[in-house]
Amino acid sequence: MSVANGRQFLSIPGPTNVPDAVLQAMMRPAVDIYTGPLVAMTDALLVDLKKVFRTKGKTFIYAANGHGGWEAALSNVLSRGDTVLVLESGRFAIGWGEMAGVMGAKIVTLPGDWHRAVDPAAVHKRLAQDKAHAIKAIMVVQIDTASGVVNDIAAIRKAIDAAKHPALLMVDCVASLGCMRFEMDAWGVDVAMSGSQKGLMAPPGLAFVAAGPRALEAHKSANMKTHYWDWTFRQGPEHYQKYCGTPPEHLLFAQRAAFDLLFAEGLEQAWTRHAILARATHAAIAKWSEGQVMSFNIAEPAQRAASITNVRMAGVDTDLLTNYTREKCGVTLGLGIGGYQGKAFRIAHMGHTNAPMVLGTLGAIEMALKALSIPHGSGGVSAAIETLAAAVPA
Ligand SMILES: *Cc1c(COP(=O)(O)O)cnc(C)c1O
User: Fold this and answer.
1) 96, 153, 172, 307: residue to mutate for ligand 1 pocket, most atoms within 8 A of CB
2) Ligand 1 test: best mutation among 145, 150, 182, most atoms within 8 Å of CB?
3) What is residue 192's three-state secondary structure?
4) Rounded to an integer, what distance in angstroms lies between the CA atom of residue 169 and that of residue 166?
5) Would you say the CB of residue 175 lies under 6 angstroms from ligand 1?
6) What is the pLDDT of residues 319-344, one digit of tens each?
7) Whether residue 99 has pLDDT greater than 90
8) Main-chain dihedrals φ then ψ at residue 297, nearest 5 degrees
9) With contact defined as beta carbons under 8 Å apart, do 47 and 41 qualify?
10) Domains and CATH numbers, the chain
11) Which SS3 state, helix, strand or coil, does residue 331 take?
12) pTM over 0.90
């Protein structure tokens, strides 16, 4: 028996649900790449990216996924042999650091625990040891999609300043931009990067990088630069230089439509929506956890991300649950990654997502818990509804 026929729910942490208006924006013939509307659209998108990153710095658009954005960020500011400090809080900063290693940087990791945020005091301590200032850049993710943690970027910046350390602060915002507050300039972030396919509601394929003045200064002498990612070349006078080749036109039309939706809602309102939907999700999981099988991967509520929740299960293979929701209900959940395979699953509440979508996903999970006789506290969905009704008064 299955009740999966109907609109399929993709509740994975990227790519996320693409709004119909964004899909429709791509249904058009290709346009000229030298003249006409595309040229003005590029300029507008670069300005809109400044609004989203909250920066007066330079913004860049790449035909690439998030990994491409990582390489763009690193190659423009580092030189071979530079030391970088990676702040572990899940899989993603580690992955970004490994990429820096392959590109010729020396990696120093501040080991982290996948159950809590980066500790700013530990960052301060580590930097204070680096008296010679060998560390050139500090790499951190705002929301680590693997663990479901949110790191306090402003507090990390304060720790760097307190240690009077000159390293660049580089932040991965792939799973957080558009989902929660990010203040590139106010928080003193030197390089920030993101992608189109998560909170920014467009299909995968665009990477975004923003560079502040200290990063642009480091760029001048960086020797990891390569032609495709190079910020200097991309600031040249010709439109094609902004993409180092043919612009990914249809994705640009898509991102245009997605930004129009985001700005119509209001960036800060979108953050609030994410926060409310996250709280509703947490309310359900708190109830289910009473059954002693499920638990939050991130114990401290304030450290749980607004866009993604990681739920562990003890003694039950999570594939049973995720297979059930997918095959019987048409709801695809995120699987555990980075050692969490079969031990955790992930619920995305990221991007173009509203209360019925989150309730539908939570409802399918509760249905699976009952059908599979997995011990759980009852009333998780009701708790989510209570949270939503309290947060959204008439
Ligand atoms: C998804 C994600 C990435 C990688 O993006 P890809 O488009 O898959 O290359 C990087 N960092 C974070 C935090 C992510 O969530």
Assistant:
1) 172
2) 145
3) strand
4) 9
5) yes
6) 999 999 999 999 999 999 988 999 99
7) yes
8) -70, -35
9) no
10) 9-16+266-391 (3.90.1150.10), 31-263 (3.40.640.10)
11) strand
12) yes
